[in-house]
Amino acid sequence: MNVEEAVHAMNPEQHLSATDPPLGAAGLGQPGCPPEAAALRERVRAFVRERVMPCEPVLDAGGDAARTTLRGLQTEAKRAGLWALPLPEEYGGQGLGLPLYFHVAEAEGASDHGPAALGSAPLLDVLMLARHADGTVRDRFLRRIADGEVRTCYAMTEPETPGTDPGLTATRAVSDTAGGWVLHGRKWFTSGAGDADLVTVLARVDDEGPGTDSLSLFLVPASAAGFTVVRELPVLGAGGQWEIELDGVAVPPEQVVGAPGQALRIAGERLVLGRVLRCLRWLGQAERAFDLMCLRARSRSQSAGPLADRQLVQQMVFDSLLAIRATRPLVHEAAARLAAGGDARLETGLAKVAAARMLQQVADAAIQVHGAAGLGPDTALPGLFRTGRTARLLDGPDELHITAVARRVLRGYPVTSRTEPSGR
Questions:
Q1: Cα separations (Å) of 306 from 25, 132, 301, 311, 365?
Q2: Per-residue pLDDT of the chain in tens (424 residues, 90 and over written 9)
């Protein structure tokens, strides 16, 4: 199925379309958005709503039809001048700086497939490889990644070790006589591994036991001997996550990313940016759920009148709007601090927890207003709720961020036996 067929086959009640009203109160007042970003954001929002969202059932199903449809969307994005907005110009992107792109990412992320359709999905990998990869790797892959020809993913989490403690990573890299490495291990919940051409793998380069100073990153072709996609791991019924095995995979020395033992520093760079991007995209998805809820409340009537007149429905609308409006400044504060080159760990931790909770809350309220229809395949709400629930575990569970933020805050206070000045 091509893009046009997917658009015309959609259920008219399934997604917002070009004929729907403009975004309501949830989408107003994005802080500090300059005019040039606002215009671009509206173009991206229109593309995602009019072209990407109608194709979601096909894209979600996977397989050849999904790949064909995605390629069609990517071609459209290139023709529209919206392709690879934040990727560096030297590799074929448009070089939109992060301060401006952060204002666009919210609209782009209203669909899970928006970043892939618009070519920004590999941003973290492109920046990582541009900064830390060997020159031969940059020359060989970066333009092809930016063009969408080569697909990438990142493999860090393992079945038998806690994802919050990378020091316990069990995947091993043993040096060979040619100066390269041989990898043994298993990773899971690796996004996009089923279709990836290149996988960045976190592995331990010695056998000295737990610790972080022996961890390195390796760029592994999915076609390499010993690399196996073991199985897909549905997340609350949806695909896209995979388990992979590395059984004696040979990696040449130039495909080590960064200096040996520097994996966590490099991973930290991409994790902070990745968390901010996720938060922005969750805001976009929450706006979408909010709009669906309000449209349903206005259009659905019972014998006692429209749902919009019910105080309980009005309460859910108010609470959802409050959650979105309260979360957006936290997210953009983290984004602004990161873009300015500051330490954004505290702000990112606050934003990540708030945005995950907010998306789950708003999607849940929208489902409640829809009733049974909100549980079925005729709206985007089950997927939005699923994203909200998994958001509380992605890139570190809520508990990790809560603890890290609280410890950082408490370290700023002196140790004293007095809780208040005496005033004497």
A1: 20, 58, 4, 11, 17
A2: 545 554 444 443 444 443 344 455 566 556 677 888 899 999 999 999 999 999 999 999 888 999 999 999 999 999 999 999 999 999 999 999 999 999 999 999 999 999 999 999 999 999 999 999 999 999 999 999 999 999 999 999 999 888 778 888 999 999 887 889 999 999 999 999 999 999 999 999 875 555 557 899 999 999 999 999 999 999 888 888 999 999 999 999 999 999 888 899 999 889 999 999 999 999 999 999 999 999 999 998 887 788 999 999 999 999 999 999 999 999 999 999 999 999 999 999 999 999 999 999 999 999 999 999 999 999 999 999 999 999 999 888 999 999 999 999 999 999 876 666 655 5
CA distances from 81 to 46, 88, 111, 121, 151 (A): 13, 15, 19, 16, 21
- For every residue of 62-91, DSSP letters joined together read -HHHHHHHHHHHHHHHHHTT-TTTTS-GGG
The dihedrals phi and psi of 179, each to the nearest 5 degrees, come to 90, 0
In sequence order, the 6+-apart residues with CB closer than 8 A to the CB of 103 are 30, 33, 34, 37, 38, 41
What's at 225, amino acid-wise? A
Cα 325 to chain centroid distance, Å, stands at 20
**Residues comprising the chain, all counted:** 424
Nearest partner of 277 among 128, 107, 24, judged by Cα: 107
Single-letter code of the amino acid located at 396: G
CB 196 within 8 A of CB 152: yes
Q: Which domains does the chain have, with CATH numbers?
A: 3-128 (1.10.540.10), 152-257 (2.40.110.10), 265-410 (1.20.140.10)
pTM of the model: 0.89
Q: Report in angstroms the alpha-carbon separations of 376 from 69, 85, 344, 373, 405.
A: 23, 34, 39, 5, 38
What 8-state DSSP symbol labels residue 23? Answer: P
Tokens 């992320």, located at residue:
109
Write the CB contacts of 417 (distance below 8 Å, at least 6 apart in sequence).
none
